[in-house]
Amino acid sequence: MTTHTEAEIASQPDCWRRAVRDVPADALPRPGERVAVIGCGTSWFIAMAYATLREGAGLGETDAFAASEAPVGRRYDRVLALTRSGTTTEVLELLGKVRDTKTTAITADPNTPIMAAADQVIVLDYADEKSVVQTRFATTQLAMLRASLGEDLTQAIADAERALSEPLPDALVEAEQFSFLGAGWSVGLAQEAALKMREASRSWTEAYPAMEYRHGPISIAGPGRVTWMLGEAPEGLREQVEATGGTFFSTGLDPMAELVRAQRVAVARAFARGLDPDEPLHLTRSVILSP
Q1: pLDDT per residue over 153-206, tens digit each?
Q2: Beta bridge mates, 178
Q3: What beta strand segments (E) does 96-183 contain?
Q4: Which of 9, 29, 207, 281 has the fewest Cβ atoms surrounding its Cβ within 10 A?
Q5: What is the Cβ-side half-sphere exposure of residue 148, based on CA atoms within 13 angstroms?
Q6: Predicted local distance difference test score (pLDDT) of residue 276
């Protein structure tokens, strides 16, 4: 029987198509605005990816913060809050501290406190999830955000369909350890891929900017261990990893589509370890802290 997590992973290309088609006209950051993007866990990593893309597109200075670490005294034209549940304590508390700044939130659930906490709210209820581990909501909001920057996601969607259809290499399902690497906006996605592997399968995973990997972390590469690049790899890195006896994995797909493959591997590894990816250990759908 297919788990909720498997079904949600498989639905991502369709969700992305809808997100690209339904980009809101007036709720997202406008060109020239100085923006802080906040979130917790997965949402923070998606915030990192969007911030890099927006600033790289020349649309305005854009910073990403874990909600608990955002600098309240720094001036921004808009705060963009990412929260699947709409109930995360740190996000709600931060929005309460920036009343003089325009705020927008993206959420999956319209029946939560976030609706009153932000000035404008974008609801992607069609991408909501039953599983605790985030997959399609995270990538769907990033698809919408990328489209809002003027990107054409046609190839990314095709790449995601490919990532869903190709068999998973045994070397990935059976690996002892993973190091996920990214560059630019895919650094956030590398962090997210590592998080998915930890959450769903309790795997030993790390994540780094690709050019930083050789500054120490490559020391753990070796037989049975995988270095997985999301996006284009720096010249010579594959050869250096393979010289250690480790596996270097890079396909050239859109990094968001490669994240889909990593989600699939996380689920396959969970099954191999007798774990339920729908019910990861020690986790809940939202972190709600007591007063």
Answers
A1: 999 999 999 999 999 999 999 999 999 999 999 999 999 999 999 999 999 999
A2: 205, 226
A3: 102-107, 120-123, 177-182
A4: 281
A5: 23
A6: 86
Residue type, 64: A
Asked if 160 and 12 count as a contact pair (C-beta separation under 8 A), the reply is: yes
User: If you ran DSSP here, which 8-state letter would residue 29 be given?
Assistant: P
Q: Give the CA radius of gyration of the chain.
A: 18
Residues of the chain with pLDDT > 70, as a percent, come to 96
Rounded CA-CA distance 46/277 in Å is: 21
Q: Would you call 275 exposed, middle or buried from its count of C-beta atoms within 10 A (0-12, 13-18, 19+)? A: middle
109-120 residues labelled b (16+ CB within 10 A) or e (exposed): beebbbeebbee
In angstroms, rounded to a whole number, what is the distance separating the alpha carbons of residues 31 and 53?
13
Q: What is the rounded distance in angstroms from the CA atom of residue 20 to the CA atom of residue 156?
A: 11
pTM for this structure? 0.95
DSSP string, 95-119: HHH-TTSEEEEEES-SSSTHHHHSS
- Packing angle of the helix pair 136-148, 255-272 (nearest 10 deg): 180
- What residue ranges of the chain have pLDDT lower than 70? 282-291
Angle at 76 between CA 71 and CA 77, to 5 degrees: 155
